[in-house]
């Protein structure tokens, strides 16, 4: 029964703080890639989500995701308002830390997931429509998928699919939602012209560095204990990010002739995405392979976007969607019971059912996230309104949505 | 009096300025501007896509000088701004009616 371990508790609280820091980091990562006139609005979307989803999580989100199972699909409302979620551990989820620690750690995941989607509709979403979308998406898409994969009684968890830190729950769900949003909102007015270029790449690189840093909390913290498994997750996370940064840069160098800074920043994020589901199940050398595949693979996925012509402005589909799927499949290939006895062994150890379970989990997440996101956005488009007017888009969201300017040149 | 307006390569500006200072003309107003003449745009990369930036960064240097000094200054600017490639810029000399100190 629940005996609180101070080391574990301290570790998970620090990890939760690290994961919290990722979303403002994402704000900078995205903010640097948009035009000057949309810099603040883009940053605001991620930053405001930290506040919005945190409150939502405490009120109902956590209960829907992790509360007592209803039909293997969703948690009940028994824990709404954090009723019964206190200082005593909940052995179903983490036996050695207070239930509140587990709740807040998971809350940070609920925060960053919808923030990832904002890259797809950057530079053209109305703030009001954005807020409503995030509220509905968190409750209708994130909470159920989170319950399926991580909630006790969830059907994907029961099926034996593995997702250590959120390959399906966080990255595939947001990556697919991003595709639905890009298709439904349509392209930016200036799509395809040279006007659409990043206004501050140093800001983007700083954001990527914060993401990389915070990801240690994301993946190592998902061990929920301060021990060997957390160390494994920490090391494989770092190696995959490093390998992916190298492979994206090399791929772009060979393809376009120059190694870019944005490529290095994008590559490390692709590697971090791909190692996320695998981080508690694979050893370091497979992590290098996953990183190498993720860097070049996500670069290819981003190139495919140009050919298909949808305006996923900041490449959420190519990085989180494609990277998430790659990582979930690689978990089915490289997972090893020697790393985590609570896990399973993958295809390279002759165990194919795990790979099959991973494929089913991916397919279900893609299908549900795409359809549900599309419906939410369609309803909002017809009611509250999603897209700014043409004039507002030309003037920029900073001015028209927030009456602010990111950069003020004062005389004197 | 003449006003000299020179649009030059930003990377050549430090040399031009040093040369003018040496000639004894330390006063100037400088702005960072964008534009293009015959020079083609700059190629840049963005996540595997190439695009061309049409307007290129230049430095515009303005100074008002005595009529007889103008040719010497123009020659100094040309000597130090020139690389021989397209995009070296242009220099305009305009008549100035009056100049008043604001002191």
Question: What does this protein structure show overall?
Answer:
The complex is a heterodimer of chains A (412) and B (103). Chain A is an all-alpha fold. Chain A has a single domain (6-393), classed as Orthogonal Bundle (Ammonium transporter fold), CATH 1.10.3430. Chain A has helices spanning 6-31, 39-66, 99-117, 127-150, 155-159, 167-185, 201-220, 228-256, 261-275, 284-308, 316-334, 352-382, 390-395, 397-402, and strands spanning 69-70, 74-75. In chain A, strands 1-2 form a two-stranded antiparallel sheet. The mean pLDDT of chain A is 96. Chain B is built from 2 helices and 6 strands. In chain B, helix 1 (13-23) packs antiparallel against helix 2. A 4-stranded antiparallel sheet of chain B has the order 2-5-1-6, covered by helices on one side. Chain B has a two-stranded antiparallel sheet with strand order 3-4. Chain B has helices spanning 13-23, 70-81, and strands spanning 2-8, 29-35, 42-46, 49-53, 56-65, 89-95. In chain B, 22% of the residues lie in helices and 40% in strands. Chain B is of the alpha+beta class and 103 residues long. The model of chain B has no long low-confidence stretch (mean pLDDT 92). The A-B interface holds A 194, 197-198, 252, 255-256, 258, 260, 262-263, 266, 299, 302-303, 306, 315 and B 41, 44-54.
Under CATH, the homologous superfamily of chain A reads Ammonium transporter AmtB like domains
CATH class membership of chain A:
Mainly Alpha
Would you list the SSEs of chain A in sequence order as H and E? HHEEHHHHHHHHHHHH
Largest interface summary: A-B, 16 and 12 residues
**Radius of gyration of CA atoms of chain B, rounded to a whole number:** 16 Å
Number of domains of chain B: 1
Q: How would you name the oligomeric state of the polypeptide chains in this document?
A: heterodimer
The CATH class of chain B is: Alpha Beta
CATH architecture of chain A: Orthogonal Bundle
Assess the beta-strand content of chain B as a share of residues.
35-45%
In whole angstroms, the N-to-C terminal distance of chain A is: 67 Å
Spans of chain B of at least 5 consecutive residues whose pLDDT stays below 50 are: none
Largest sheet of chain B: 4 strands, antiparallel
Spans of at least 5 consecutive residues with low confidence of chain A: none
Mean pLDDT figure of chain B: 92
Derived structural class of chain B: alpha+beta
Count structural domains of chain A: 1
- Helix fraction bin of chain A: 55-70%
Order of strands in the sheet with most strands of chain B? 2-5-1-6
Q: How many β-strand runs of chain B?
A: 6
């Amino acid at each position: 029964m629940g005996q609180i371990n101070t080391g574990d508790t301290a570790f998970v609280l620090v990890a939760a703080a690290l994961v919290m820091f990722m979303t403002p980091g994402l704000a900078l990562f995205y903010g640097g890639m948009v035009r000057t006139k949309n810099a603040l609005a883009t940053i605001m979307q991620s930053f405001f989500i930290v506040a919005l989803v945190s409150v939502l999580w405490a009120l109902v989100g956590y209960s829907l995701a992790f509360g007592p199972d209803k039909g293997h699909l969703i948690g009940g409302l028994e824990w709404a308002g954090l009723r019964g979620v206190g200082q005593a551990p909940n052995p179903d989820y983490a036996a050695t830390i207070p239930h509140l620690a587990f709740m807040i750690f998971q809350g940070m995941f609920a925060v960053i997931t919808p923030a990832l989607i904002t890259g797809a509709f950057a530079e053209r979403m109305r703030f009001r429509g954005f807020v409503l979308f995030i509220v509905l998406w968190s409750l209708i898409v994130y909470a159920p998928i989170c319950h399926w994969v991580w909630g006790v009684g969830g059907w994907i968890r029961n099926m034996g699919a593995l997702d250590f830190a959120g390959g399906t729950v966080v990255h595939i769900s947001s990556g697919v939602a991003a595709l639905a949003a890009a298709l439904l909102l349509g392209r930016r007015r200036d799509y395809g012209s040279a006007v659409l270029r990043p206004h501050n790449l140093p800001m983007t690189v700083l954001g990527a560095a914060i993401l990389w840093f915070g990801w240690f909390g994301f993946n190592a913290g998902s061990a929920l204990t301060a021990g060997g498994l957390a160390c494994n997750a920490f090391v494989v996370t770092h190696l995959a990010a490093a390998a992916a940064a190298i492979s994206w840069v090399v791929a772009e160098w060979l393809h376009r002739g120059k190694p870019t800074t944005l490529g290095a920043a994008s590559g490390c994020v692709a590697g971090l995405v791909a190692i996320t589901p695998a981080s508690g199940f694979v050893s370091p050398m497979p992590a290098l392979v996953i990183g190498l595949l993720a860097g070049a693979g996500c670069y290819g996925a981003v190139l495919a976007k140009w050919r298909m012509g949808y305006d996923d402005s900041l490449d959420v589909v190519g990085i989180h969607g494609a990277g998430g799927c790659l990582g979930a499949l690689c978990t089915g290939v490289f997972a090893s019971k020697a790393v985590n006895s609570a896990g399973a062994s993958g295809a390279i150890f002759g165990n194919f059912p795990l790979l099959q379970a991973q494929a089913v989990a991916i397919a279900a997440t893609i299908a549900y996230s795409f359809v549900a996101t599309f419906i939410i956005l369609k309803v909002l488009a017809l009611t509250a309104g999603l897209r700014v007017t043409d004039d507002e888009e030309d003037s920029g969201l900073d001015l028209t949505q927030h009456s602010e300017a990111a950069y003020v040149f004062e005389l004197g | 009096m003449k006003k000299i307006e020179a649009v030059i390569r930003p990377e050549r500006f430090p040399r031009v300025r040093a040369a003018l200072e040496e000639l004894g003309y330390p006063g100037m107003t400088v702005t960072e501007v964008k534009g293009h003449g015959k020079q083609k745009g700059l190629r840049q990369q963005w996540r595997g896509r190439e695009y061309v930036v049409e307007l290129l960064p230049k430095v515009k240097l303005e100074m008002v000088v005595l009529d007889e000094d103008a040719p010497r200054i123009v020659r100094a600017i040309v000597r130090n701004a020139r690389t021989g490639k397209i995009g070296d810029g242009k220099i305009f000399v305009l008549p100035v009616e009056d100049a008043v100190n604001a002191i």
